Structure formats: structure tokens, C-alpha cells
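Structure first, sequence second, as always.
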């Protein structure tokens, strides 16, 4: 039994403890805010320089595996900022790693820098190719690679200032647009020691969630027939183009009988040489997508049956060359929470009057309602779903705990792979979005280095989502990167 006096002392002590706890919490919040301010200041200190880098890459757009100016430029910047750079990894001349520090944890950022064919564009709100038929950065990869490098420099400086232990690594990944550079890096074991990957992609809004991406599979279908005079001796010919057309028409009928979220798209890359010659050779390039890689595998077998039917009906021979094969993204709950906090701290940005005018004029070309919020908004939640694109970052997510987000580098309503996106990627709007991405990556990266428990939580979330499954790909471990795929 306690006395009344001791009760009073106890109450007083509890009050002091509560006051002390409140003080400690407030102090921790203040210190945390101060730390974040320091990280954001480091990003700001290098933002102009990496903005120039992003513009240089935008001005010299290069197709996958041929980023012979873009990749060295990023390597040069990272090397100048104290990173150890290893170039030409995984059998790809433009692939590289840039590393700072040593030991655990190993936290990675990924950068892309390849452009898209035929999307050359000036930084104006109207269709205006800089060079007709040339590549352009319609997916904003000039910003993607530069923002991740900017974040890496800021994280590295914070690690030095605080004496944080661990390894920070930047992966320069070529040919995301159909070449699958990250898959060859995975096969080469370059992600083997990584504990967590933080990734991002250009978009029309600032958002963090656990949305996945579509798995995809594709390649080139080549048909071989017999040439003959199309008027004088058509009976002697066997048209490879007929084989392609029967194949693709069969695919059109197939669309009715696949899950509605499936996407199938193609181009005819070779339809013959002249109309008066029965084509002896024809080729189509086709990609199919679905949110579930296992479901996609079944759909793909039916696509192959369509191709075989085309050859059988036309009396031709068909060969298939494997192309892209990307996995859907495996979300990571713990890392998404880290990125969500980081983006809230990073914040969005405001348009200048000139940028507002650009955005308004550009939106007039979209031909539909704009539902995305402005760049000043930040949306973070733990919602799940599936985006409409595919990326080889999905393959990384099945091997290493990975989370990603989008930053508002495009005007609201603008989608990737368009001339509008290419225009935005070369403007101050694109560069402001790039800085939002770098700020988010930097704050999140530092949090992981400071809190080993967050890294463990990411690993636990990864194992739970994996649920005994393993990453698989149709791209064989001993296959060589298709260095000429972009020029075929």
C-alpha cells in the first residue's frame, strides 16, 4: 500500500515523464525536419547542374543500347561526385554501375536514358519534330536517369556528413524501351547483394502507391514464302505477307476471348518489296500484356497458335525471335510507406505564368478531359492496382525489394510515348518534376540508411508477397543482349 504523499510524488513523476516524452518527441520531430531540410538542401545545391544534364540528354536522344552520349555523361557526373564507376557491364557497352561506400545495407537507385523511335519533338506546345523521323524522349528518360543521379549525389553527401554506413549504388540501365537491359543485369548477378531498390518514372502527377505494371511478352514473327510474278505466275508463289495477314487477323478474332485487361499490339515491319512480286519474306513485331504473368503465358500460347495457323494456311514457314519479356511489378508495402513519407516531405511545385501558358496550350491538343491533379499536389496512399504500361523494373522487383513512384514531369493529362510528353521532357516543367523525384528518392534513401529496421521490414514484405514464387523470364540466362534490336 502506498501513502498519499507517495501517490502525489508518483503523479508528479508521471507528469514529468509525460512532459519529458513530449519534449523528446518534439525534439525528434524537429531534428527529423532539420535532417530532411539538409537532404533537400543537398538536392537543391546540385539541381541546376543535373537539370543541364537532363537537357543535354534530351537534345541528343538515343535508342536503346546506343546511348553512347547519354550514358557517358551520367557516368562522368557520378564519377566527378565521388562514385566508383564500372562501365560496360552485363555485355552492354552503355550499362554501368556507380557505387559509393561499402558493407550493408546496399541501397540502389536505377536510371534510364534511352529514347523512343520517331518521337523527335521541340519544346513547344504543338507538334514540331526537331528532326523528322528521329528519336525523342517521349517517356522522359532524360529526366529519369538525371533525377536518380541527382538523388544519389545528395544521399552520398548526407552519408558522409553523418558517417552513415552502407553501400549506395546507381544502376545505369540501357534499353528499357523493349531491350530489357535490367534483365541482362539480373542474369549477370549485378543485383545479387542489393537490399532495396528505390525507383521512379516520369508521369503527369506526383503520386506514391502500390500499383503494379503489366507483364508483357513479345517478339518478331518472320514468315518465309516463295517469290513469283504476282500477275504472270501467282500460282507459283507463296506469300509471306499472306502468312502475316492471316496471323494478325487471327489475333484480332482472339481479342474477344481473352481477359478484358489484356493488351495486344503490333506493327508490320516488312511487308515485301514491290506489289508485283509475291513477297518471299514478311515480318511482324507483336507485344501482348496482362497484369498477371501466368495468365499472359496462356494467352501467348494462343498467339503462337495464330502465327502457326498463318503459316499453315498460306503455305509458308514461320520463325519466332524472342523479344521483350517483362514481369509485372511485385509491390513492397514497407518501401512504399518510406516513399510516401518522403514524397510528402519533398512536396510538389508551382507553375510560373509562362509554364501555365505552355500547359494550357498543350492540353488543347489532348482531345479529352484532364483528370490528373496539378503538379502542386502530392498523392500518397497504399492503394493497389495495375498501371497500363510495362517495364523491366518489374523483373527487378521479383528479385530485390523494390518500390516506385511517379513525379509530375508532364503536363496533367499527358501520357508517355507521345510528342506531348517529349515536349514536356525538355522544358522547365520536366526539370521541376525531376527535382521532385530526386527529393523523394534522397529523403527515402537516407531514411533507409539511418534505419536498418526499415530495410528488414522491406525484406519481410518482399518475402511475404513472393510467397515461395520465383522470378522467371523467357530471356535465357546465356542469351546476349540484342544490340541491334532498335535498328531492325
Amino acid at each position: 500500500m502506498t501513502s498519499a504523499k507517495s501517490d502525489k510524488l508518483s503523479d508528479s513523476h508521471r507528469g514529468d515523464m509525460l512532459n519529458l516524452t513530449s519534449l523528446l518527441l518534439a525534439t525528434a520531430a524537429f531534428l527529423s525536419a532539420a535532417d530532411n531540410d539538409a537532404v533537400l538542401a543537398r538536392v537543391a545545391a546540385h539541381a541546376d547542374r543535373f537539370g543541364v544534364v537532363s537537357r543535354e540528354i534530351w537534345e541528343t536522344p538515343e535508342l536503346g543500347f546506343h546511348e553512347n552520349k547519354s550514358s557517358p555523361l551520367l557516368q562522368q557526373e557520378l564519377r566527378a561526385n565521388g562514385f566508383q564507376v564500372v562501365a560496360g557491364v552485363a555485355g552492354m557497352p552503355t550499362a554501368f554501375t556507380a557505387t559509393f561506400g561499402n558493407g550493408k545495407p546496399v541501397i540502389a537507385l536505377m536510371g534510364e536514358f534511352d529514347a523512343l523511335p520517331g518521337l523527335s519533338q521541340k519544346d513547344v506546345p504543338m507538334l514540331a519534330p526537331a528532326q523528322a523521323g528521329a528519336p525523342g524522349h517521349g517517356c522522359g528518360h532524360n529526366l529519369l536517369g538525371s533525377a536518380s543521379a541527382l538523388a544519389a549525389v545528395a544521399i552520398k553527401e548526407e552519408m558522409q556528413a553523418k558517417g552513415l554506413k552502407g553501400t549506395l549504388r546507381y544502376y545505369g540501365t540501357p534499353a528499357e524501351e523493349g531491350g530489357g537491359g535490367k534483365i541482362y543485369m539480373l542474369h549477370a548477378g549485378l543485383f545479387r547483394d542489393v537490399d532495396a531498390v528505390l525507383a521512379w518514372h516520369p508521369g503527369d502527377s506526383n503520386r506514391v502507391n502500390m500499383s503494379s505494371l503489366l507483364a508483357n511478352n513479345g517478339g518478331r514473327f518472320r514468315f518465309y514464302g516463295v517469290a513469283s510474278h504476282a500477275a504472270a505466275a501467282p500460282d507459283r508463289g507463296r506469300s509471306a505477307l499472306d502468312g502475316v495477314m492471316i496471323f494478325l487477323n487471327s489475333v484480332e478474332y482472339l481479342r474477344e476471348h481473352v481477359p478484358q485487361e489484356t493488351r495486344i499490339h503490333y506493327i508490320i515491319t516488312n511487308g515485301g518489296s514491290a506489289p508485283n512480286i509475291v513477297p518471299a519474306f514478311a515480318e511482324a513485331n507483336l507485344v501482348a500484356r496482362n497484369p498477371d504473368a501466368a495468365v499472359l503465358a496462356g494467352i501467348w500460347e494462343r498467339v503462337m497458335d495464330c502465327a502457326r495457323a498463318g503459316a499453315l494456311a498460306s503455305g509458308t514457314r514461320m520463325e519466332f525471335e524472342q523479344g521483350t519479356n517483362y514481369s509485372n511489378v511485385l509491390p513492397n508495402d514497407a518501401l512504399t510507406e518510406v516513399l510516401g513519407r518522403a514524397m510528402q516531405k519533398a512536396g510538389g511545385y508551382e507553375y510560373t505564368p509562362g509554364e501555365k501558358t505552355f500547359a494550357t496550350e498543350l492540353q488543347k491538343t489532348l482531345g479529352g478531359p484532364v483528370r490528373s491533379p496539378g503538379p502542386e499536389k502530392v498523392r500518397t496512399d497504399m492503394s493497389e492496382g495495375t498501371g497500363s504500361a510495362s517495364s523491366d523494373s518489374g523483373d527487378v522487383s521479383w528479385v530485390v525489394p523494390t518500390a516506385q513512384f511517379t513525379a509530375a514531369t508532364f503536363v496533367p493529362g499527358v501520357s508517355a510515348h507521345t510528342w506531348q510528353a517529349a515536349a514536356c521532357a525538355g522544358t522547365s516543367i520536366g526539370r521541376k518534376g525531376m527535382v521532385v523525384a530526386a527529393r523523394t528518392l534522397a529523403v527515402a534513401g537516407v531514411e533507409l540508411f539511418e534505419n536498418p529496421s526499415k530495410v528488414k521490414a522491406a525484406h519481410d514484405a518482399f518475402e511475404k508477397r513472393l510467397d515461395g514464387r520465383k522470378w522467371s523470364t523467357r530471356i535465357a540466362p546465356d542469351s546476349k543482349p540484342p544490340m541491334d534490336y532498335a535498328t531492325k
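Margin note: The mean pLDDT is 92.
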